[in-house]
Design a protein that fits this description.
The structure is a single chain. It contains 4 helices and no strands. The model has no long low-confidence stretch (mean pLDDT 80). By secondary structure, the protein is mostly helical. It has one domain.
């Protein structure tokens, strides 16, 4: 192995770690965008429920069976859970970042072969730590998104059942 062999290997591992960090950042953005879609959908469907309620109160001949009302109330609660979970996904979460002073310290030091090796190891350790932090945040966001989607799906199913009951009553 040549003298610059370990540095080349370290650079390869560092590049791989940076790619993983980039992938996790993209996943985080994707989860947050999907959460916004859940919020929008839940909001629209809650508005639809209010329209149903308005029709019920305005038209005397329009009678919604009691079980359908119960299902609509349950679906409204699920939409609130769904939207709340989706909103929680977009809450600011502290994440591990590299302080600028640390980067400045690395560049202020003299560059010799020993220092280069130490800096490469430090960079790799930092990228791995950032990667771990991002993955932990993304796991929490994904779990919240699963709750939001499941609640929304169940709410839509309850509305469908309530409408079917009302139409067949």
């Amino acid at each position: 192995m040549t003298a610059d062999g370990p540095e080349k290997v370290a650079a390869i591992y560092l590049a791989a770690a940076k790619d993983q960090v980039g992938d996790e950042r993209s996943l985080k953005a994707s989860l947050e965008q999907r959460a916004l879609l859940v919020i929008t959908t839940s909001g629209a469907l809650v508005a639809l429920q209010f329209a149903i309620a308005a029709v019920r109160t305005r038209v005397q001949a329009f009678a919604v069976p009691g079980i359908a009302v119960t299902l609509l109330i349950a679906s409204l609660c699920l939409f609130v859970l769904s939207a709340g979970s989706a909103l929680a996904i977009n809450l600011p979460v502290p994440q591990l970042v590299v302080p600028p002073a640390t980067l400045e310290d690395h560049f202020a030091e003299g560059w010799n072969e020993r220092e280069l090796h130490r800096v490469l190891i430090s960079q790799h350790e930092t990228e791995i730590a950032v990667l771990g932090s991002l993955r932990a945040v993304n796991r929490r966001k994904a779990a919240l998104l699963n709750v939001a989607l499941a609640a929304e799906l169940l709410a839509v199913a309850l509305i469908a059942v309530a409408v079917a009951i009302t139409l067949t009553a």
